[in-house]
Amino acid sequence: MSAMPRRRFLQSAAVTFAGGAIYQRAQGAPLLPLAELRAQGAVVVSTWPFGQPANEKALKVLQAGGAGLDAIEQGINVTESDAGNPSVGLGGIPNADGVVQLDACIMSGPGHRAGSVGALSGFPHPISVARRIMETTRHVMLVGDGAAKFATEQGFARGPELTAGQRDGWEKWRREQAARPAPAKAATGGAAAKPDNHDTIAMVLLAPDGHLYGGCSTSGWGYKLAGRVGDSPILGSGLYVDDDIGAAGATGIGENVMRYCGSFLVVEYMRQGLHPQEACLETIRRIAKKDPKGFDLSINFVALDKKGRFGAAGTGSGFEYSVTCGKFSRVLQSPGLTSSKVGPIGGNRK
Ligand code: GLY
Q1: Which ligand 1 atom minimizes the distance to the CA of 224?
Q2: pTM value?
Q3: How far apart are CA 218 and CA 103, in angstroms?
Q4: Which CATH architecture is the domain 14-337 placed in?
Q5: Where are the chain's structural domains?
Q6: Consecutive 10-residue runs of the chain (350 residues): their mean pLDDT?
């Protein structure tokens, strides 16, 4: 590396280049050999800046010899335990009835196994419940009362169901709803449809054993109708892992992801040869082309392939995502897509 100190190089690269390119440039080679990647203890990619401490926990688990699923679960547990995070786990936003209903799923590349939980109340770590469903039952998904019964029987610790801050917010929202004229009331779900109120953690990682794993966890759309389940626990929508190809996860308005199997689509584009970042972009272009909302979708994807290359993309101005490996841990800005920036679908195959 030239005269520029390594730290500064990485920082400037973070501003200048897309995710995968940072990784490649930081290593001074077009692609880090998989053997070296394994030697440095894996790559962890997750949504949003709050994913960074979760990534770092996941990497520590792997570096200590832990399994990929342990890394995913314990990493996401970090976010779920943060009562200050208003959209995941303990601090999650409630539904229209003032009840926090959490969604999560976990997926293992080896064995193509998965577990999932929807509309779970009373337990702050839905990722752990999802894993237990995967590992101890013949099912993939449990929801609502049945999921809570399972979590109780399995001895999961119950947690506070609504923080004081979330209760205040919900009561204010209810007062506002009551003051609105009848047709504007939330028969179709909460008014809180801003992109900042369903910030899922979706995490994907390539473990030192060369296998891919993923998980995601969220309280979903704020003030949603009771029983609403979003994209996050739906395999292929909020998360998908194909151990031969790559892994992808989503954040944003779940309704705009789950109608298109968004994460599955990202992985399929990687299968066709696209770089993870281009696969995320292409998925959004394809959805926007069909969807009446066009690019006004509030959806974002992260992706990681079997070679350790990663990327992300979102609608609007994009979004921030976190990448952690043995050499660095950073929050990066994804490219954004609006109708004025979109290229033709189907370009950029490698
Ligand atoms: N993406 C999370 C949700 O919409 O529930």
Answers
A1: 5
A2: 0.87
A3: 5
A4: 4-Layer Sandwich (3.60)
A5: 14-337
A6: 33 33 34 53 92 96 94 98 95 96 98 98 97 98 98 94 93 93 57 58 96 97 96 98 98 97 98 97 97 94 96 96 93 90 51
